[in-house]
Amino acid sequence: MNEWLERLSQLPQQWFDSPVAAIALTLGAYFFGIRLFKLMHRPTWCPPMLIAALLIAAVIALLPIGIDDYNRGAGWLMLLLGPATVALAVPLYQQLPQIRALWKPIMLTLPLSATLAACYAVIIAAAMGAPAEVLASLAPKSVTSPIALGLAEELGGSRALLMGALLTTGVTAIFGVEWLSRALRIRDPRLIGLALGINGHALGTVRAFEISSVAGAFASLGMSLTGAFTAIVLPLVWHLFA
Amino acid sequence: MSVLRGFLWLLVFLLLGQATVELFHLPMPSGVIGMLLLTIFFGYRGGMNPDVVHVSQPLIAMLALLIMPGVVEIFFVAGQFADQWIAIVTALIAGTLLSVLSSLLLMRRYLPTSDTPGNPGDE
């Protein structure tokens, strides 16, 4: 009996030796998050992803496994992130005529928007006395995570803090775009999509696809252009001041 | 089969993206470059490959799921920055709301308004 219990207690560790358990946990938490999100009448401040991430964190904390065990398995699932990003070419191509018509105004407004997205947070944090390491982790907060991680590393920021900043920014941007576009009576899906992509990176883009395919395509455009612009300009500006 | 063929297309363009990143030392992820290359390729051919269209729909719907695992880690390192959290949270929330407001105002000012709310591109 004792031996059996011992074997049972080793089960979680053995499960997480292969990626299967981590993938199953992620999928399970995802569907749980969506269901709870619907039961809570779709609150904009709490996307299903946040619920799911909290649930996964709770399960990891309760089981005798570490975050590293989970990350190792979930990495297999995240392999799909690359092809999924490439797949965004389909909505982007579908909206190409619309984007071509708006080429000039987008090129005029986007660099300024992307700069402001980084500046506001860095200025507020600096004014409140945050050290350089924290500022470096906050500066790329509106950029899609693969680019942002590289940037934070280059500026000397913390990877973990940046992931937290990305989550907070994404959730706030989704909430902010929905709230402020209603307040400003903006209904143009192109504009809402761009605002979601520029400020809310991939989280905002996912939300934009839920609104419409036009909003989604413009969000992917805003996300990629913000990423490209910030990746080139931020390190230059940063080393100018630091 | 169509889905698998489409998936192969995506993988090939991901690899092409990676090659471009490595060759030109671009500070961008391979996926984003692959996406731009595939868009340019569709534009060059004057149409989309139906296999890629098939596989892209479920993959884009999965994006939220694919971002999630990266988010989990924060809950395990939050303690490191405990003495800074008021500045961090204020900067993130106020900064993001401000930047959303300014980009919405900027775009509304400079983007020509669309003729109809339901654009023909919305199928």
UniProtKB/TrEMBL annotation, chain A:
The chain crosses the membrane at residues 20-37, 49-67, 73-93, 105-128, 160-179, 191-209, 215-241. Its main location: membrane. Signal peptide: none annotated. Keywords: Membrane, Transmembrane, Transmembrane helix. InterPro entries: CidB/LrgB. It is a multi-pass membrane protein. It is found in: Membrane. It comes from the Bacteria. This is LrgB family protein. It comes from Salinicola acroporae.
Automatic annotation (TrEMBL), chain B:
Its main location: membrane. This is CidA/LrgA family protein. The chain crosses the membrane at residues 29-47, 59-79, 85-106. It is a multi-pass membrane protein. Signal peptide: none annotated. It holds the Pfam family LrgA. It comes from the Bacteria. It comes from Salinicola acroporae. It is found in: Cell membrane. Keywords: Cell membrane, Membrane, Transmembrane, Transmembrane helix.
